[in-house]
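Tip: read the tokens left to right.
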């Protein structure tokens, strides 16, 4: 029995080392000079702590604080929109009854199979007609319209696991449908909401394609687009400062996941076992 436990933990430790190696590689490169970057050793013989200060002010006219603010602004509003819209749509599919409900839910699930590249051109034409290209609106407004079927499905599955007896008891006490939603059902979906918020934040924070297409002004650039500015074909690439800023860019996602890990695991686990 002890040998089996030891073997299991050994496998898990080795697997964790494989998973954490890219982070260690990023940390090592963020402390290297340009000359040490191609060398195979993980960490340099001499740490270049100046990479962080140089990278923070490497973009002419802007500090990286500006790009972090832009990313936080877009990600925060996107998370808020996703939570509100997905919760309302999910409650409607899970608790209410309306004509062609199963058909509409099936169509919603079918959109999960559509790659983002398929809808990219129609969306761009639509936002272009709204004169939104060059602003942050295409990156924020759609999230208030429940455009992520994955989050709707996740919350639907969670709500279906909440006993309907609670709804019936609330009705007997004179609670309306809206009251049942906001006082009974949705407050019990905290783990699913936190899971949705984590995924939404990370996906929005890491989104490069959408931000590259719709943001044309450097002043509105986010962190992923700012990192791209280091790759200047007209001059030498400052690899160390770029890796330093890339390391800083993953810290918000890491902190959010670490703080909300308990609810994240609970939300995924409980959603996965409920049909």
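Filled-in amino acids:
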């Amino acid at each position: 029995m002890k040998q089996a436990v030891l073997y299991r933990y050994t496998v898990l430790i080795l697997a964790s080392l494989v998973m954490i190696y890219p982070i260690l590689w990023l940390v090592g490169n963020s402390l290297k000079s340009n000359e040490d970057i191609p060398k195979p050793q993980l960490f340099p013989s001499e740490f270049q702590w100046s990479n962080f200060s140089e990278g923070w002010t490497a973009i002419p006219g802007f500090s990286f604080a500006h790009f972090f603010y832009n990313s936080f602004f877009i990600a925060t509003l996107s998370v808020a929109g996703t939570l509100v819209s997905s919760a309302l749509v999910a409650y409607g599919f899970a608790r209410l009854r309306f004509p062609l409900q199963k058909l509409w839910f099936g169509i919603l699930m079918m959109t999960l199979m559509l790659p983002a590249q398929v809808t990219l051109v129609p969306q761009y034409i639509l936002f272009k007609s709204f004169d939104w290209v060059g602003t942050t609106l295409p990156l924020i407004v759609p999230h208030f319209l429940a455009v992520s079927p994955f989050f709707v499905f996740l919350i639907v599955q969670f709500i279906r696991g909440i006993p309907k007896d609670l709804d019936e008891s609330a009705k007997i006490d004179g609670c309306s449908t809206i009251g049942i939603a906001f006082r009974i059902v949705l407050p019990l979906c905290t783990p699913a909401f936190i899971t949705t918020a984590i995924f939404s934040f990370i996906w929005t924070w890491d989104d490069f394609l959408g931000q590259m297409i719709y943001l044309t002004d450097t002043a509105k650039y986010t962190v992923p687009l700012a990192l791209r500015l280091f790759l200047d074909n007209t001059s030498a690439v400052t690899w160390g400062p770029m890796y330093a800023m890339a390391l800083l860019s993953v810290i918000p996602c890491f902190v959010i996941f670490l703080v909300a890990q308990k609810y994240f695991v609970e939300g995924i686990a409980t959603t996965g076992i409920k049909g």
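The two ends are 35 Å apart (CA to CA). The mean pLDDT is 87.
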